[in-house]
Write a structure and sequence with these properties.
There is one protein chain. It contains five helices and seven strands, in the order ββααβββααβαβ. It has a seven-stranded mixed sheet with strand order 2-3-4-5-6-1-7, with helices on both faces. A hairpin with a 2-residue loop joins β3 and β4. The longest helix has 14 residues. This is GNAT family N-acetyltransferase. It comes from Streptomyces prasinus.
Length: 190
C-alpha cells in the first residue's frame, strides 16, 4: 500500500474580536442550524462536501454512531443554503473549559468559488463564540480552534487566515493513499 505525506495545520482564535467576517455573498444565501439530529442529513453533508477531498474517517459510521455523536450537548450543524439548496456546512463541537472546535467545514463542489465559503465560515465562527448561549450550563467560549490539512481545498488555509485564525501547530504524517470516494461510490473520478 502506498502512502502520502499529509500536513495538518491547527489554527485558533482566542477572543471573539479575532473574527474578521467576510462580506455576505450576493443572492439568497442563508445559514440555518440543523436542530434535529439527523444521521441521514449529516452523512449526506459529510460525503457531499468531503467526497472529492478524501474525507473518509466517518464513511464507515453506522446510523447509531452518527446519532450518538450528533445528539451530544454542544454539537451543532449549521448549513448554508443557496436558494433553498444545501451548499455546505460547518460542524461545531463544544469541548471542556470553554473550547469549541470547528470539526468540519466545507462546501459542496458546485458551490465553491461563489463567495459562500467565507460567509459560512464567518457565520460558523460567530456561532462557536456564542455557543454557550444556546446550551445552558456550558462555560462561555474562550477559544475556537480547527485543523485543516494538505488534502483540503486549495483555498481553505487562506480562508481561515482571512477570518482571523492564527496557526499554533503543524504536523506531518504518512497516511495510506485513499481513493477519492465522491459522495457515493463511483461518483467522482479518482
Amino acid at each position: 500500500m502506498t502512502t502520502i505525506a499529509v500536513t495538518t495545520w491547527s489554527l485558533e482564535q482566542t477572543a471573539p474580536t479575532d473574527l474578521l467576517p467576510a462580506a455576505p455573498p450576493e443572492g439568497d444565501v442563508r445559514v440555518v442550524r440543523s436542530e434535529v439530529p439527523s444521521p441521514e442529513f449529516s452523512r449526506f453533508l459529510y460525503a457531499s462536501v468531503g467526497g472529492d477531498i478524501r474525507w473518509t474517517d466517518r464513511l464507515g459510521w453506522t446510523y447509531a454512531q452518527w446519532l450518538e455523536y450528533l445528539d451530544r450537548p454542544g454539537v451543532e450543524t449549521w448549513v448554508a443554503y443557496d436558494r433553498g439548496t444545501p451548499a455546505g456546512y460547518v460542524e461545531l463541537e463544544a469541548q471542556d473549559d470553554g473550547v469549541v472546535e470547528i470539526v468540519y467545514f466545507g462546501l459542496i463542489p458546485a458551490f465553491r468559488g461563489r463567495r459562500v465559503g467565507g460567509h459560512l465560515l464567518s457565520y460558523g465562527v460567530a456561532r462557536a463564540w456564542d455557543l454557550a448561549d444556546r446550551w445552558p450550563g456550558r462555560k462561555p467560549t474562550g477559544r475556537v480552534w480547527l485543523h485543516t490539512c494538505s488534502k483540503d481545498g486549495e483555498y481553505a488555509m487562506d480562508n481561515y487566515r482571512r477570518r482571523g485564525f492564527r496557526l499554533f501547530d503543524t504536523k506531518v504524517e504518512e497516511e495510506p493513499r485513499a481513493a477519492t470516494p465522491g459522495p457515493w461510490p463511483g461518483a467522482h473520478p479518482a
